[in-house]
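Supplementary Note 2. Why include the ligand at all?

Several targets in our set were suspected to adopt different conformations when bound, so apo predictions alone were not considered sufficient. For every target with a known small-molecule partner we therefore ran a joint prediction. The input for flavin-adenine dinucleotide is given below.
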Amino acid sequence: MAEVLVYVDHLDGDVRKPTLELLTLARRLGDPVAVHLGAGAATAAPVLAEHGAARVLAADAPEFADYLVVPKVDALQAAADAVSPAAILLPSSAESKEIAARLAVRLGSGIITDAVDLQAGEDGPVATQSVFAAAYTTTSRVTKGTPVITVKPNSAAPEAAPAAGTVEELAVTFGPLATGTSVVTRSPRESTGRPELTEAAIVVSGGRGMGGAENFALIEALADSLGAAVGASRAAVDAGWYPHAHQVGQTGKTVSPQLYVAAGISGAIQHRAGMQTSKTIVAVNKDAEAPIFELVDYGVVGDLFDVVPALTDEVRARKG
Ligand code: FAD
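The joint prediction is reproduced in token form.
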């Protein structure tokens, strides 16, 4: 069976969920071969094996941490040369998309970014994309070279499928461009303890209807009761009520969780662009005519200051 390279997104071997989703999708196309760059391959290997990685190609070198993406492109190119894969899959993060684009140029391959589904096709993988603010769904396939495809988080539920996960050392020779841009400082983001917005299975967002920064505590309380990430509309971000890193939409982040809860958000097209592919959408809005109700699965016409705390209490009560 053909092999499919999966680029592992991790922090010192702690594998992030989108990689497990990629392994699940990769199994539809062939035997997944994980590519683990940097420290922690021994930690990551059992998790990767559990999710279907037949092999784990591992390379560790200071270049991966000390310089921006090019060393990783060099390594993935070496992996592609070694394996001759049927496809190369990466998560749709900003960094991975840059790696994917550079890799595709190196390999002379076509690239598809931000896929939301992947299927095996007679002439190679067929990728589904949600485009034009999710107004259209397209399917595409790469017609030149080894398909390089980035897949959005939450496009598939990770499924266990135990495989060997044999760790093999990947020999990488860094090219002259690898050390062209170095990392000068690195400071960890203050942790909220909540999941990362683009990876979260549940997102609770607040908009202008929140009426002020202090009221986002209601959104955070509901998010915490559900184990969710917090999002915000641009109106709320522009008002300075919540940091820009949490903005959902065309000029913010794109999320595709299992559940998206929008409170005090009207549902402008630019906001929809960032959340329309969520599996289940719930909105709380006091205006029954708000456009957000056109796309919800469940809508509550009511005052969020009553509904959101009541919902939080109910979730807490049911969790015991
Ligand atoms: P509003 O549209 O003002 O809606 C507030 C809603 O809250 C209303 O529906 C109201 O009925 C409801 N409400 C008020 N009080 C309560 C209450 N007590 N209880 C319940 N409901 C209540 N927007 C984004 O979100 N993300 C983007 O990335 C983005 N990018 C943009 C890019 C461009 C180029 C442009 C032009 C715009 C962009 N926008 C974006 C802005 C977008 O057009 C909207 O202005 C914005 O989404 C509105 O935010 P909102 O829904 O929070 O506010």
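The domain at 3-169 is CATH 3.40.50.620 (Rossmann fold). The first helix runs from residue 17 to 26. Comparable summaries for the other entries are listed in the accompanying table.
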